[in-house]
Amino acid sequence: MWGIELQRHEDLTLARQIYQTLRVQMTAGQLQPGDVLPATRELARQLAVSRNTVYEAYEMLSAEGYIVSRPGSKTRVAPGLKLEQPPLAVETAPQLQPAYSYKADFKTGQPDLRCFPKHLWLQLLRRAAEQAPAAEWGYTGPAGLPALRAEIASWLLRSRGLTVLSQNIFVTAGATQALHLLAELLCVEGREIIVEDPCHSGMLRVLEQHGGHIRPVPVDHQGLQTENLHGKQACAVYVTPSHQFPLGGILPAGRRTELIRFARENDLYLIEDDYDSEFRYSGPPVAPLCSMDPARVIYVGTFSKILFPALRIGYVILPPDLHSSWRQLRTYADVQNPPFEQAALAEYLRTRKLDRHVQQMRRIYGHRRQVLLHTAAGLFGNTWQAWGDAAGLHLALEFPGRRFDQDFARHCKEKGIRITPVEQHSICKGRHLAKLLLGYGHLDASEIISGIRLLHDHIQKQV
């Protein structure tokens, strides 16, 4: 009746089904402006439903302006409802990529989630939610929970020797969000962002998305080659001085001084991405560049690689003159991080459980690094060399005379090996074709050994 076919066993209510059917008929022109709809009692009888059901459907149509109804008069279709039907789009089924299972997975930047104390974390998270005051169930502001900011300041003093005021620390949803906001904050039309070459391709895309004109500066064993800094067209410099990604060098004091001098002379900020320097195996973590000039250096840190990637908590240390702009940008981006995870992390820091976890993982990762180097030496002999400092969750290996490009990576994948050529992170192509990146943090010793053997066999077949 009236083209209404009710599905009485669907989740959609009968009133909603009546409303949707009549609405479609009105916008398709099947019901014309001024056409009279049956009375609620009559339509209810025809559809074998209660009068209240039809009344509810009419109420929805009336509230949205599809029908006009006045006391003592009939219910009619409102004018101006007809829509021209667009061409029927041909829907193509999405090509779902099956989860790929690698025999050897040397993905970079991945901590070992098997070692994370999940039970303890869940206890802290539940306690944080239970004990949170009512105010923390609302918006707590774009800077982050004061307790977490204070604990991050204490953590930086213990782990880096960096003295920082908690009011200069702003909590972020990971380092990637921090870079998005900084690019929005610092990018000036017509000016350049100086970046290391090679650098993390994902971070490079973030800067490009915000309209930054990229000027690459090459790196060597010691990081950014500051002698290549020149000109007054830059608005920011993105740098990883404590463990250059991907080649692993530590920026020495002379270059750090030159970099800060360049920032002062050209009135720009240095973005220091300290993504994994907690895991250094031949001494304490390197002092941040930020400690040399906190007015010119914006420090970006993250807990994702220390704990687990899904945590999505990072932080920035901002010079005071950027606080107001940052608060405004963060407010209109996503306002804040979830408060309960912030509170749980603050307690994890306060009780020094994070310190102990990092110490434990530093030993584990350091051993795995040695297993990788020892296995590579046994299989490849003296045909390769390692780049960078003994730190982080990956190694850069150079095989002089070899060529590792995207075709090589694709062939490795076909053989069940995930590996990243340094060329993938290079801006100026062709300079680092002989280098490979091997992530090892998430692999145990047996997985590393079997993976290097597979890689060795595959490389030998490419000769």
Question: Which terms would index this structure?
Answer:
about 475 residues; alpha/beta; Arc Repressor Mutant, subunit A; Aspartate Aminotransferase, domain 1; Aspartate Aminotransferase, domain 2; 3 domains; 8-stranded mixed β-sheet; 4-stranded antiparallel β-sheet; 13 helices; 16 strands; about 40% helix; about 15% strand; elongated
Folded structure, characterized:
With 463 residues, the protein is an alpha/beta fold. It has three domains: 14-77, Arc Repressor Mutant, subunit A (Orthogonal Bundle), CATH 1.10.10.10; 104-109 and 356-461, Alpha-Beta Complex (Aspartate Aminotransferase, domain 1), CATH 3.90.1150.10; 120-351, Type I PLP-dependent aspartate aminotransferase-like (Major domain) (Aspartate Aminotransferase, domain 2, 3-Layer(aba) Sandwich). 38% of the residues lie in helices and 14% in strands. The strands form four sheets. The protein has an eight-stranded mixed beta sheet, with helices on both faces. Strands 12-13-16-15 form a four-stranded antiparallel beta sheet. A two-stranded antiparallel ribbon has the order 1-2. Strand 5, helix 7 and strand 6 (213-220) form a beta-alpha-beta unit. Helix 6 (174-186) crosses helix 9 and helix 11 (353-380) runs parallel beside helix 13 (445-461). It is elongated, with a radius of gyration of 30 Å.
